[in-house]
Amino acid sequence: MIKNIVFDMGRVLIRFDPEYFLTREGVHDPEDRAVILKELFHSVEWAMMDRGDLSEDKAEPLVLKRIPERLHSKTSYLLYNWAQRKDTIPGMYELVKDLKESGYGIYLLSNASTAQPEYWKQYPVSSFFDGTMISSAERCIKPSDEIYRRFIERFCLEPDECIFIDDTPSNVAAAIANGWDGIVFFGDAGECRRLLEMKGVKIKGL
Q: Which of 32, 52, 53, 78 has a beta carbon 3.0–4.6 Å from 139's, enabling a disulfide?
């Protein structure tokens, strides 16, 4: 029986879309967009921040030295401020709220940098969570088996009582390999609600 719903964060609860972030901050030139995408969002430094090997302030000079000076201010702003309260996934606040009110444990398991605790609290959905585990704090990332085992131990849960919702199939597959159930999220909160109900999750609300 499922008792705990474990969510990924980016592209599941909050928007993580670098192309959108560039447009939001007024970066429209195709060449400028391409260089920021490559050297910031798709960089080794970004991956190292998720692993906890670099903080934003340590990553910043490494990234900027590969980017034209005229783009430094935009790049730095995006590094520190890509997460904004208004950029959430439609319908997910309501789904999490309904699950919480239905009596389920609500948890977060996300690959994210050490800045996550600061920006996470700006999102109202964060108030529903019983516990969070972030890769940078653990120095261990999804889909490593270790982070799923560590999560279960940290929160004293049973794997077969957990279901994991993530937008990356390999992360869901790893959860399933560790005894959890799982759902791959494709951006549709209504579909996610239906899939949860198909797996026996009883949800109050809509």
A: 52
Q: Using CA of residue 199, residue 142, residue 113, residue 161, what is the dihedral sign?
A: positive
Beta strands (DSSP E) in the chain are 4-7, 105-110, 131-134, 162-166, 181-184
- Looking at the fold, whether 77 and 149 belong to one and the same domain comes out as no
In this prediction, residue 206 carries a pLDDT of 55
Q: What is the pLDDT of residue 9?
A: 98
pTM above 0.90, yes or no: yes
**Residue-range definition of the domain harbouring residue 109:** 4-15+87-198
Taking the CA atoms of residue 48, residue 54, residue 56 and residue 61 in that order, the dihedral angle to the nearest 10 degrees is -100
Report CA Rg, the chain.
18
Same domain, 137 and 98: yes
Domain limit, last residue, from 26, 52, 81: 81
3-class secondary structure, 88:
strand
Torsion of CA 29, 31, 36, 39, to 10 degrees: 180
For residues 10 and 34, membership in a common domain is answered with no
Please tell me whether residues 166 and 72 are part of one structural domain: no
Dihedral angle at the C-alpha atoms of 7, 13, 17, 20, nearest 10 degrees? 180
Q: What is the mean pLDDT of each run of 10 residues along the chain (206 residues)?
A: 98 98 98 98 98 98 98 98 97 98 98 98 98 98 98 98 98 98 98 98 83
Final residue of a domain: which of 65, 81, 97?
81
Q: Which backbone phi and psi does 88 adopt, to 5 degrees?
A: -120, 165
